[in-house]
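Give me a protein, keeping tokens residue-aligned:
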Amino acid sequence: MKKYIYSLLFLFVLTTLSAQRFVSSLPNYEAYKAFRGKPLSDKFSNIESVKVIYDLRKQKMYYFNSNLILLHYDFVTGYLGYNQDLDVFNNRNYSNTEKDRDFLLGNLNHIKGTEKWIFELAASDHMPIPLIERFFNLVKNSTFIGQNLKFYLNNPEMMEWSRQDKFSIPCVKSDYIFNEIKYQEVVGGSNIGILKKYKIKELETLKPNSDEIIILDGTPDILPNVRGIIVNELQTPLSHLVLLGKNRKIPIMAYTDIEKDNNINKLLSKKVELKIEVDTFFIKETTKKIPTKSAGKKKKLVIDNSVTELVNLSEIRKKGINYIGSKAQNMAYLIAISKEIPFKVPENAHAIPFYFYTKHIQNPAISPLIAELLASSQKDSTVWVNKQLKKVRDAIKKEPIDPELISKLNMAFKDAKLKNFRFRSSTNAEDLDDFNGAGLYDSKTGILGDSIKTFEKAIKQVWASVWNEASYNERELFGIDQQNIAMGVLVHRSFPDELANGVIITKNIFRENFPGITVNVQKGENSVVKPEKGEICEQFVAYHFNDGKDETDFDIDYTSNSNLNNNEPLLSRKEMSNLYTVSKKIETKIYRYWRKNQFHPVDIEFKIVGEKRDLYIKQVRPFND
């Protein structure tokens, strides 16, 4: 009887809490659960959050229902009688002083399934240290969390204060959160398919069926044509897996404990429905039909072989995409834009037109192999296709190149200050609105006058990558005409002395309808888009909270810090501000060159180079999200 009464009492308390809009304290986890919601930003998976306000005038604490009331401003106007407009609220309550502040605003976050509790301010909140510590202790004393509560350093200002030991409260950085993350939405969405498990090594000889949702023991270099993918490694948000997955529009998730999850393992070989969301995923057996994929129109590619000279990219060419490829054409646009905006572009940029590739593969030792591949009835055999692709690549690399091309390159670069040059793919099937092609083709370095790292070897390696397994399969999947694929080569100085490299997406990919750019950056030449196992890059969103134009109005919201740089920022505040300004101007100007009326985000690659830490922009292309 007593047990029954206690159960009823507990149910009553829980129901009462759920019906309430706010409380002044959280005595236990059940009270927290009644008010929890999803954070406004999707920068972390597996996080639940409750919003917190402390009224400085009335000295009252409020924890409110994050599902019913999305914003702090909504709460103070709807429940506390606040009557100022949003701009006044923001200017007063995110300032660097207590003067004129009405409220302290924060978020009480919990990593699901752990005892880790994180108190976080908005990255745009410049609350001084005494107020931060006062607010932190008010939260600590009015909740059940106690010593498990930590303060999260999410902007450069706070990190600098922490480095100078100015805080007397326990502070943590992103590694404290990342070390606990077991699940990550890579590409959201849902699909139905047969659940199968493969080892990465098996994909070299096995071809998963197109009606399967597959579990992998690592990150694949080549995305199989399947309904969904589950990997056991966390991904950087702008990795090639993410970009290709978005292009494919298939759900992809990372789940580090997938091998231990018996509930999922019981579903192997069964038809399942997989649904991937930011903070959770669902997978269950289903009787629903697997939807059929409609074959799209065959995408015809254009090859213009009329240009037979090396192309100097300091001059913008008309319809250059048809004879030097999109990457080289976009470099010409960047060079033109750099004359108006303070950033550098790779020096000595030239393009080798399609003509030389087309001439090379017409060699009788190469063209029959390509014809056999494209005409064969054995295309369903992964083993046969991969062997044939290797034969094509080997033949391209074996046959001598037109010596006239090498002479033209030597002449073009004879007065160059640097002797190392990067040879990069610029096909007619990449960097397009509907086909990203991220990571499908190769880039190689050639050294002027060198007997080992020759220009000829670098060019042939790039040409051969047209027939990589990944690039061939992706084109097949998208119905791209393999007969008319052509490889131009973008050539410019290489960067052996880069201090950092990264990718910018000119939108806030973690929060809908909120300003900003998303930046992933890593130390030295370590890859952001294809990191080594265990490497974590620096990632942040940068934005002008009040549409300000000077540096003091600029805000940075960190998601992660580079574990190759001791979890310390790789870029200075000034460099971050410059990235924002430059990338937004490039976005505006590149769309004029592309002659498109509707603006979409762009994907920009950059480097920080040399003693003066010069900003180089090395690539721009549409961001397909």
About this structure: The mean pLDDT is 89. The longest helix spans residues 573-594. DSSP finds 17 helices and 25 strands in the chain. The CA atoms of residues 306 and 355 lie 7 Å apart.
